[in-house]
Amino acid sequence: MEKGLLSLVLHAHLPFVRHPEHEYFLEENWLYEAITETYIPLIHMFEGLLKDHVPYRITMSLTPPLISMLKDPLLQERYIKHLDKLIELANKEIDRTRFQPAFHEVALHYYWQLTQARETFVNRYFRDLTWAFKKFQDLGHLEIITCSATHGFLPLINRTEAAVRGQIVTAVKQYEGVFGRKPLGIWLPECGYFPGVDRFLKDVGIRYFLTDTHGILHASPRPKFGVYAPIYCPSGVAAFGRDMESSKQVWSAVEGYPGDYDYREFYRDIGFDLDYEYIRPYISPDGLRINTGIKYYRITGDTDDKQPYVRAWALEKAAYHAGNFMFNREKQCEFLHDFMGRKPMIVAPYDAELFGHWWYEGPEFLNFLIRKMAFDQKTVRLVTPSDYLRIYPVNQVSTPSMSSWGWKGYAETWLSGANDWIYFHLHKATLRMTELANRFQGQNGVVQRALNQAARELFLAQSSDWAFIMHTGTMVPYAVRRTKEHLLNFLRLYEDMMNNRLDEGWLNYLESKSNIFPHMDYRLFQE
Questions:
Q1: Same domain, 387 and 238
Q2: Which of 5, 28, 159, 372 is 20 to 30 Å from the Cα of 198, by its Cα?
């Protein structure tokens, strides 16, 4: 007897990184690694489930910056070059490890994985992976939701209503152009909710959003079913809260599955381990050692003496952990069903890049889990949030509290001593963008293009990724540079327009470099 519902939600996001002014740019590897290790393995998983007629429903956000990069011809071409170098390296590794049986089988695995990735990317989906995800959505297995335009942390860029509205409307318009339908849901960036943001979601037809656990538990009035049923905001938009129990089992490297000793060790890579002259053609052109993605060791334990990775052992553990996760959800739903008197909704959201990139066996875990849930039990069913709203259209009305899934649950991650300096500039630029939109409304030609580019630069400066990187202390110079660069570009556009001295050549350069949102509409900032 079915007693509960489970919604797996994968949040696929990367900041917009595109540098045509350089032949090679290190941070573009973020995209290439995610394509190889996460997005293509997920596509292969979806294809296998489809081929074997496995019934399933899963939710996945594809953020506007990620969509823009996946559809960009320059980045597509650069990814193929990146992949070809890795395939060459993997082929050399087969030869190098031929007398090392502990590593040779893994080397063969990497070569197979990389060549399959190239076949999928180039020949099956013609370099545009958004077609793959659209196919699975059109077939009824995947529910793709959107995010804000550049993953701006809405509670902190809410200087004007236009700032929030612009982020949301731009994202929805891009989604419609790519997927041919309106999005039913949205992943609020960093699960950042503030009371009233749901009004903007309702205006564009979004029916639900995801927020963190305490955003629901601290709602007013207090929700009767906690996070195990959505609540309707006063606007009528539904809020789904994260279930901490199921989330922690997966994302915690200490207490969760990814820390198991048989899984692949992320931090031991041949880019750092092998002889410099051997590996030099496959690392950064300036000689900086970087991760290649080829790793031969398992986690082993809290030791520097790592043992060789055994793929068969890792897959066996992934199957075991999938069964354990399913069992726990069965028992959780059985208890909650008897307590609630209705089917509980367990929402388990994760960063998509956890599966494959950080947790190498993550896609296999999902594959085993979905298949086990379809054929090995009848207690819990996989659904999407919109499925739940069709099953239970009547839910409690309440207002979530301001919240996020960042450190301490509110805004500290994006408003700390390391990054608080950015907000004065972002807020000032937001007011000036509205000033420009009002003053030059109705203009055509170069002025209209400059207004749209000013909006792009503001959006890119608002990305929560830069503040996050500054807070965590990784790649800080790049995050600071990107924030300042977009703000300075905006400021120059503002001053040039106000003084009637636009430089069309420089505008052409900005448009070609930061080409996100080709149909940008500056009028979103009019008030």
A1: yes
A2: 5
Nearest-5° angle of CA 76, CA 81, CA 82?
A: 90
- Residue 461, CA distances (Å) to 114, 299, 521 in order: 34, 38, 17
Mean pLDDT for the stretch of residues 193-217: 97
Placement of tokens 């030609």 in the chain = 445
What is the CATH number for 216?
Answer: 3.20.110.10
Residue 274 lies in a domain: no
Scored b (16 or more CB within 10 A) or e, 388-418 reads: bbeeeeebeebbbbbbbbbeebbbebbbeeb
- As a whole number of angstroms, the distance between CA 432 and CA 438 comes to 10
Pairwise CA distance, residues 278 & 297, whole Å: 19
Statement to judge: residues 496 and 394 lie in one domain: no
Whether 470 and 518 map to the same domain: the answer is: yes
Residue 120 backbone phi and psi in degrees, to 5: -65, -45
Under a CB-based contact definition with an 8 Å cutoff, are residues 128 and 157 in contact?
no
| Cis-peptide, bond into residue 73, ω within 30° of zero | no
What is the share, in percent, of the chain residues with pLDDT greater than 90?
Answer: 96
pLDDT digits (tens, 9 = 90+) for 123-146: 999 999 999 999 999 999 999 999
The β-bridge relationship of strands 4-12 and 58-62 is parallel
Same domain (yes/no): 375, 509: no
Taking only the tens place, the pLDDT of each residue in 320-353 is 999 999 999 999 999 999 989 899 999 999 999 9
Final residue of a domain: which of 365, 390, 408? 408
321 and 433 together in one domain = no
Element (DSSP H or E) covering residue 208: strand 208-211
Domain boundaries, position 451 = 416-525
Residue 490 has pLDDT above 80, yes or no: yes
Asked, for residue 255, whether it belongs to a domain, the answer is: yes
| Domain identity same for 470 and 324 | no
Q: Is 463 helix (H, G, I), strand (E, B) or coil?
A: strand
**DSSP 8-state class, residue 413:** G
